[in-house]
Automatic annotation (TrEMBL):
It comes from Dichotomopilus funicola. One of its GO terms (molecular function) is oxidoreductase activity. The lineage of its organism: Eukaryota, Fungi, Dikarya, Ascomycota, Pezizomycotina. This is FAD-linked oxidoreductase YvdP. Belongs to the oxygen-dependent FAD-linked oxidoreductase family. Residues 1-23 form the signal peptide.
Amino acid sequence: MHRLTLPFVALLGGVTAVSQVSAVESVDALTDCLTAASVPFDEAGSTDYDLDVSSFNLRLNYTPVAVVAAETAQHVQDAVACANEAGVKATAKCGGHSYASFGLGGEDGHLVIEMSRMNKVVLDNSTGIATVEGGTRLGHLAVELFNQGGRAISHGTCPGVGVGGHALHGGYGLSSHTHGLALDWVVGATVVLANSTVVNCSATENPDLFWGVRGAGGSMGIVTEFRFDTFDAAGNFTYFVAPVRWATEEKALIGVSAVQEFAKTMPAELNMRLFIARSFTNIEGLYYGDKAGLQAALQPLLNQTNATLAMATTGDWMAQLKYFGGSSNLDQGHGYAEHQTFYSTSLYTKELSESQLQNFVGYWFNTAKNNTRDWYVQIDLHGGENSAVSNVSVDDTAYAHRDYLLMYLLYDRVDSGEYPAGGQTIMENFASNITQGMERADWGMYVNYPNSGLNQEDAQANYWGSHLERLQAIKKSVDPNDLFHYPQGILPAV
């Protein structure tokens, strides 16, 4: 291995000569330690290095002090020990799909532990328990579970997302209304802690840590191995699109109100979202069953919204994953390299009042439609009386927003070039038009759809709500010096 060259511009600009010497010594100590422990790391300027430091969101690029190319749990453990010795923050990067580039630390100067080479999946067909390495991507996980035993877990739709960040902070997708969040299927985990020790956690072993990693895991340690329960993925699954043509604010207000009302009692077999873009709006989702069952379940909403079921295709579990994943190649590994340039934010809300619905629709028609960039607002029907997400007690895991009816992703991207300065105000104001006048307890934000502009205090409150105090106490017990720091993570209790 070669000694890394310190990125002076990113790390040292504007600091004193004493600080420069200290930083150089830290990097030297780090690379010496990694080399002595036989921990592989990327050579700066190599193809692997360029791939591993490349952000999904090209608006947010950060420079690590080193990138460990972990292949084993021992590599992770030794890398954490070296970060401690050198006084450098450590960050696990699993899929590298973070909207705020948190897999690179969310700032310059971290030791990035690239996990995507650790992607083994082993299903025990006698128990239905899958043992999954922490760098596995969702598409690879889905393929392996299905091929090894026709099994699945609930998870999101993008095959390149890493299971680590996804399952440790929620893991919502178009199976969640039926089967809950990805973290609801976690029954155990192996975690490298900040002191470089390795522990197992489950409902009966280190239960506080187990609670914390299921919702705020990125702040607690590095999960090298998950144990997931799984469900039988046999049967028919119908994915669908129903365009709506609301030409006026009045019609859109009636339509969005009808969608919200439908969400309260939507059948458990139906998973759905309202997808709003500048030039079109769709009701879309996945139904557990055939087209006739979908038609019966959806018809009341179609009648109320004047929508037409334009596409409904029935297939097996893998067919719907390929459709929503946008690719026939689900089995993504270390070489995955998708990029976009965008700004995003998120919301959870309880039922919107008439005035809040009017604010939302008014901003959509009178302001957002004038934005010519490639933006969208995705409103997932997250809760309701039949939702598997909401039917788990809010205090069972660190995921704090189970009792919220709607979940929003607000996303604004450019197809080429740089994102414009000040462009984020479009989505920021969209969100604030929804929440204005709300009680603080009536809205929150999803950490897997982070708003990169939040300060740490606001981020903690918005992402973890009523669970924050307990999470800070757990953080203090497992990472008192905040080795696994990132700009919007949990801070140790004072």
